[in-house]
Each structure stands twice: as C-alpha cells, then as structure tokens.
Amino acid sequence: MSHTISLGHRLDRSEIYGPGLRAVFWTQGCNLACKGCWNTQYWSKKGGDIIQVSTLLEELDSIDGIEGITLLGGEPLQQSEASLELIKGCKEKGLTVFLYTGYDPSEFDHTMQRCFDLSDIAVTGRFVQELRDTTLRWRGSQNQQVHFISNAYDESVLQEQTEVECHILPNGEVRMVGYAEKGILSIIEGVQP
Ligand code: SF4
User: Which residues contact 117 (CB under 8 A, 6 or more apart)?
Assistant: First the structure.
C-alpha cells in the first residue's frame, strides 16, 4: 500500500535545487520554526495537495530529461515514511535524490536515517538567521551541512554560482525560486517586501 504525501508546491524541472535538471517537491508541514524561514507557507500541515507516492512516481516517468529529484519543504522528514517510499522509488528508476532537512543527523529516528542513507546528497540542519550566507550554494546559513552520501556527486558541484529561476505556473502566476536577496525576489514578483 502506497503512502500519501502532502505537497505544498512542485516543479517538474529546475536547475537550482541540486545538480543538473531535477523535479522538485516541497512537502507541506514543518514545526521546526526556524527564525527567518523563507518557506513559512509550508509550516502548516494543512493546505497541501495530498497525493499517493505511487502516483507521484508514475508522473515522474513522463518528465523527460531529469537526472533526479529534490525533496525539501516544509520538512520532508516529518513525513518520513512517505519520503522514504518516494526516495526508494526514485532510486529504482535510476534518479538521484537530493534531500533537504532541517534536522541534524543526531536527531534522526530509524526511518529518517534510511531516507538520508538512500539519498545521494543531503543538506541538514536548521536555518539560522544570524548565520545567513547568500554565497553558499544550496544552503541558507553557514551551520547547514552538505553530505555527499553516494558516489554520484562530489564537492566540485558546490563551485558553481547560486542561481535564481523564474517559473510561469499554469494559472499564470509568476514564481521566483532560488537564493537571491529577498528584496529582489519581491520586486520581480511585484510583491511588497
Ligand atoms: S526546517 Fe526549513 S521549512 Fe522548517 S522552519 Fe526551518 S527553514 Fe523553515
């Protein structure tokens, strides 16, 4: 029986959240409440799209050209059984997995640890506003750790520039994703900071 997962947002293709072209899934729900979190819309457990992981895995088959998925949030490890099923299914398809979690590995339970162990890259640790650093690739603050878990990637992937992408969603909404200064994103989106 497949688990269900609650997603706050997803992109079929992005080149920002990990090496190469990737499908990106923001899980809905996080109670870690880091001060300065950029993704507060994903804190509530309510409001996400509930989807069976088996369906999600089937949908991945129709996305051409991706080398992997990135799982972030929200907090993917607060839906660890569903995340584990998704990670396992992706690995069986030959896709790489980039896992973001606000937890430190010392906080993992057994299922969280399996999610981590089966991923190819993981970024771990809370976002700490006082340690914010926009020059770091794929991390928001200096305390967060990048782990190269499999042999799929190595530290050379960290040398490239941080990036921003503009996505026009099916409903016409323009969404900027990436690691630019928050004020710049707000101006581009036409949102008051
Ligand atoms: S773990 Fe991530 S989503 Fe959760 S509060 Fe911290 S920065 Fe925000």
Answer: 149
pTM: 0.88
Domain range for residue 171?
163-193
Ligand 1 pocket, 39 CB below 6 A? yes
Looking at the structure, do residues 108 and 168 belong to the same domain, yes or no?
no
Dig out the tokens for 172 from the structure. Answer: 């016409």
Q: Report pLDDT for 193.
A: 39
Residue 5 to residue 136: CA distance in whole angstroms: 29
Which residue CA neighbors atom 3 of ligand 1 most closely? 74
- pLDDT one-digit tens code per residue, 23-39: 999 999 999 999 999 99
Same domain, 155 and 170: no
Q: Are residues 158 and 171 in the same domain?
A: no
| CB distance 7 to 48 below 8 Å | yes
